[in-house]
Design a protein that fits this description.
The structure holds two protein chains of two kinds. Chain A is mainly alpha-helical. In chain A, about 70% of the residues lie in helices and about 0% in strands. Chain B is α/β, with parallel strands linked by helices. Chain B folds into three domains: about 1-75, no CATH class; about 80-270, no CATH class; about 290-465, Rossmann fold (3-Layer(aba) Sandwich). Helix content of chain B is about 55%, strand content about 5%. In chain B, helix 5 (about 110-140) runs antiparallel to helix 6 (about 150-170). Chain B starts with a helix and ends with a helix. The chains are: A mainly alpha, B alpha/beta. Chains A and B meet through helix 1, helix 2, helix 3 and helix 4 of A and helix 1, helix 2, helix 3, helix 4 and helix 8 of B.
């Protein structure tokens, strides 16, 4: 079902990993918790795979499985981004400006 | 090729988002960008594949998204570590289910697809069960059972891992039923790997599992042939590894000793990491809130060391009020934040931000340590292991080598604590016996409110008027 080769997929994997290593270089300790929570929300992107499964599934049981997977992934994504936003909204400098 | 455009913008936004999340000024916007990126990716996918099966999609959205919203808006900030663990576990579960579902799709499965399914099932299962164990430990629903500290646990885990590999071989040889035992064994392996790790090390485990869930997402990307999923999963996987390393450095623990070394302090006889009353303290000076308030009134420079106990007592707001009172009196006030204050790196910063403490008043360990010798009063609130001087002086201490806040260098130290119980790591604290240390026994919130009353009684806060 994949329409691209192992070769290309491995290149994508390698470059994506390098990007991840580069992006998180120096993080102020204040942001460790929100960063972990935000990165965790991004990992819920597996919801795309759940949507693809629902779209391609030939029968209701498989669609239902896809829907459950989608539910778990969306719980991760939506909850994760919201809770991260809640944390970040609280950070203020002296004098009140965010 | 609208989908390609949307996917490419999504990757760009995700990268910008992850990068922005690592900077204070941009973090909130970056979080929004990352969320937008996921939204774009969903639109791109739906544009290309159509809306077939939309009732199922809506169902998943309503239930999963709905519960996510409610939990995210309601959960107290003190419970953040276990919340992240729970979200993370569910991400792993999603990858696991997708991979199992993909096997049922029509059409032949090539070797690449099969291996991807196996990786996704394996990593997804370990992430799910491991995260749930981590959550249960942080919630204190689960202890560290003594039997998990025996060496035999390695044999059990290795057996489980080998059995998992055997199942993988079975599946690759064209027997899909092998997926069922593989899922079960991998779930058990996730539990077996996480259960022996002590509560104090849980944040590192969550961070690592967070990295795993990225890997699981990338594996799911191989399964459904989505480059976007692979990129995003790889990015989170790599970023999670870096963050894990940062945390290990902060706690002076190597990743291998966290993962395979058993619970910290367990070998010293604490066994289950239980908080036992330490009977072995020698000379302890205790003092009243009144004496402590007099010391504060005289001080020029005061440093607060907040720990998780402060948050448990919900005393952050009282602390901020006391700090403002002292600042109004001309005292220089700052907060010393150990990298692992709270129960997760950065957790204390979030908890103090919730109480409206400006983040530029929170000082990191490396910056504040040289300042302690010229500090008049240090007040330790619900922190314990992170101010333990034995981590510097006593090679026999299990904490030895962990970077700590050197509060013993200050002129006087007041430790607000409910009793002489051991800290999270179950280790005695030599700071309490030092001549410059006095213990103020009581609940953090009650003590802080007492200090505020005493200081007001001493005329602090009215001084501006009196001087006229």
């Amino acid at each position: 079902m994949s329409d691209f080769s192992l070769n290309e997929a491995l290149w994508v994997l390698l470059l994506g990993s390098l990007l991840g290593f580069e992006l998180i270089g120096k993080v102020p300790p204040t942001l460790h918790t929100p960063l972990m929570s935000g990165a965790n929300a991004i990992s819920g992107i597996t919801l795309l795979a759940a949507l693809a499964l629902i779209g391609q599934a030939p029968s209701p049981p498989l669609q239902a499985l896809g829907a459950v997977a989608l539910g778990f992934a969306l719980f991760n994504v939506i909850g994760g981004f919201l809770v991260t936003d809640r944390m970040l909204a609280m950070f203020r400098r002296r004098g009140g400006a965010a | 090729m609208n989908q390609l455009l949307l996917d490419l913008s999504a990757v760009l936004l995700l990268a910008l988002g992850l990068r922005g999340l690592a900077k204070l000024r941009t973090a909130r916007m970056a979080n929004g960008l990352a969320a937008l990126a996921i939204g774009l990716a969903v639109v791109g996918l739906l544009v290309s594949q159509g809306l077939a099966g939309w009732p199922w999609m809506l169902g998943g959205l309503a239930v999963g998204g709905g519960i996510g919203v409610v939990l995210a808006l309601r959960v107290p900030m003190t419970a953040m570590p276990e919340t992240v663990a729970l979200f993370n576990g569910c991400g792993g579960m999603a990858s696991l289910l997708v991979a199992l579902g993909a096997v049922g799709l029509p059409g032949p499965m090539g070797l690449l697809a099969t291996v991807s399914v196996l990786a996704s099932v394996l990593v997804g299962s370990i992430t799910f069960s491991g995260s749930l164990v981590a959550m249960a430990k942080l919630q204190e629903w689960l202890d560290t059972p003594a039997w998990t500290q025996r060496q035999a646990r390695h044999a059990v885990n290795i057996t489980l891992a080998v059995a998992c590999l055997a199942c993988c071989v079975v599946v690759v040889q064209g027997q899909p039923w092998g997926l069922a035992p593989l899922t079960l064994l991998a779930l058990l392996l996730g539990i077996g790997l996480t259960l022996p790790i002590g509560g104090a090390d849980m944040p590192v485990v969550i961070s690592l599992l967070n990295s795993y869930s990225g890997v699981a997402a990338a594996a799911a990307g191989f399964v459904v042939g989505s480059a976007l999923l692979i990129v995003a999963g790889a990015m989170v996987g790599a970023a999670g590894l870096i963050l894990t390393q940062v945390m290990c450095t902060a706690m002076n623990r190597s990743l291998t000793s966290v993962l395979f070394g058993g619970a910290l302090g367990a070998s010293a006889g604490a066994g289950t990491g239980e908080k036992k009353e330490a009977e072995s303290y020698g000379r302890i000076t205790s003092c009243s809130a009144e004496e402590c308030a007099m010391a504060l009134e005289q001080a020029e420079r005061v440093v607060f060391v907040p720990g998780y106990g402060l948050a448990v007592a919900q005393a952050q707001h009282s602390l901020r009020e006391l700090a403002r009172l002292l600042e109004g009196h001309g005292v220089e006030v700052s907060y010393a934040i150990h990298p692992v204050a709270g129960r997760m790196p950065g957790h204390m910063n979030v908890l103090l931000a919730e109480a409206d403490v400006p983040y530029d008043q929170l000082v990191e360990m490396d910056v504040i340590n040289p300042e302690f010798p010229r500090t008049d009063v240090v007040i330790v609130l619900g922190a314990n292991d992170v101010v333990n001087p034995q981590a510097k002086n006593d090679p026999s201490s299990p904490l030895f080598g962990m970077p700590v806040l050197e509060v013993d260098q200050a002129r006087s130290v007041y430790v607000v604590k409910r009793g002489l119980g051991a800290g999270y790591a179950g280790i005695k604290n030599g700071l309490f016996e030092l001549p410059q240390t006095a213990m103020v026994f009581g609940d953090a919130k009650a003590v802080l409110n007492g200090l505020i009353t005493e200081l007001r009684g001493l005329g602090v806060g009215k001084k501006a008027l009196a001087a006229v």
